[in-house]
Amino acid sequence: MEPTDLRMGRISYINASPVYYGLDHGRTPSWLTLVTDVPASLNRQILDGSVDISPISAAHYAMNHRSLLLLPDLSISCHGPVMSVLCVSRFPLADLTGKTVMLSKESATGTSFLKMIFARKGVTPEFITGDVGDITGIPSNVDAVLVIGDAALTQPWEKRFSYCLDLGRIWYDMTGLPFVFAVWAVRRDFAAAHPDTVTRALERLWASRDDGYRHLDTVIAAGHRKLGLPESLIKAYYRCLFCDLDDLKIQAMTRFFDSLYRRKILTSPVDLSFFQPG
């Protein structure tokens, strides 16, 4: 049976490039359309039905787990520093009570995690949300910024802010566990109606990722061309990233969601539910 047409999200940052390498090099079938956007937009699109499968912020899955299923063995994770999810600040985190912290509107996970860190430390900043993609656009009264994605790698944050904290490293120091920033998910209603199509799309993603890691030098060169950063830095970045979702990462994600719920950042506990390929 011919698969049903499917729209699949793709993160516009280079962090997901290994996963999409094969799809970008001949593995995209006629029934699959790729939709490239930032995480916050993909988060919205999977809920309103504009895309059927997408990488989304892990915290966005937690907030909408009753409507979504996780796809197995796919994530954007780190085990220690991640380099592209940073809190840059004029002050130590413990001194930010009453100070202005600008949150990226592009990442539910980074935002939730940073709020959790502040709650653990008893720190109560004033939060605002804005576009943090360009350091020159950050208002002068902002004391700290959550910045994610390619902008974290390319902008000279250290020239304006005295402290640069890697959220992946903070989580690892707290728990000794990896951290899952993004997951791939499918809408439950689409999966129920078209399980064979979702299975085929999942198999394409796995194969595409395998192609990406077999051609990682090409992926690194493409990242260098896109961002204008040294290939050595792009290579170091990809050494920080993992695109699987093994048992330890699932354990870490569960712990993160439980922590968010205990601190009332999530309004209900989260049960992880996975799509089961046919």
Going by CATH, the architecture of the largest domain would be 3-Layer(aba) Sandwich
Query: If you compute it from the alpha carbons, what radius of gyration comes out, rounded to the nearest whole angstrom?
Result: 18 Å
DSSP strand content: 15-25%
Silhouette: globular
> Which class do the helix and strand fractions yield?
alpha/beta
The count of strands amounts to 11
CATH topology of the largest domain: D-Maltodextrin-Binding Protein, domain 2
Could you give the distance between the termini? 14 Å
Helix content: 40-55%
Strand order of the largest sheet: 7-6-8-5-9
Task: Give the count of helical stretches.
Answer: 11
Mean pLDDT: 96
CATH superfamily of the largest domain, by name, is Periplasmic binding protein-like II
- Uncertain parts: none
Name of the top-level CATH class of the largest domain: Alpha Beta
* Biggest sheet record: 5 strands, mixed
Strand and helix order? EHEHEHEEEHEEHEHEHHHHEH
The tally of structural domains comes to 2
Describe this structure in words.
- With 278 residues, the chain is of the alpha/beta class.
- The chain folds into two domains: 6-78 and 178-262, D-Maltodextrin-Binding Protein, domain 2, CATH 3.40.190.10; 85-175, Periplasmic binding protein-like II (D-Maltodextrin-Binding Protein, domain 2, 3-Layer(aba) Sandwich), CATH 3.40.190.10.
- The protein contains eleven helices and eleven strands.
- It has helices spanning 17-27, 39-48, 58-63, 108-121, 150-154, 167-175, 188-193, 195-214, 216-227, 231-240, 247-262, and strands at residues 6-11, 32-37, 53-57, 68-78, 85-89, 100-104, 126-130, 144-148, 163-166, 179-187, 241-242.
- It has a five-stranded mixed β-sheet with strand order 7-6-8-5-9. A four-stranded antiparallel β-sheet has the order 3-10-4-11. Strands 1-2 form a two-stranded parallel ribbon.
- The longest helix is centred in the last third of the chain and has 20 residues, at 195-214.
- The two termini are 14 Å apart.
- The mean pLDDT is 96.
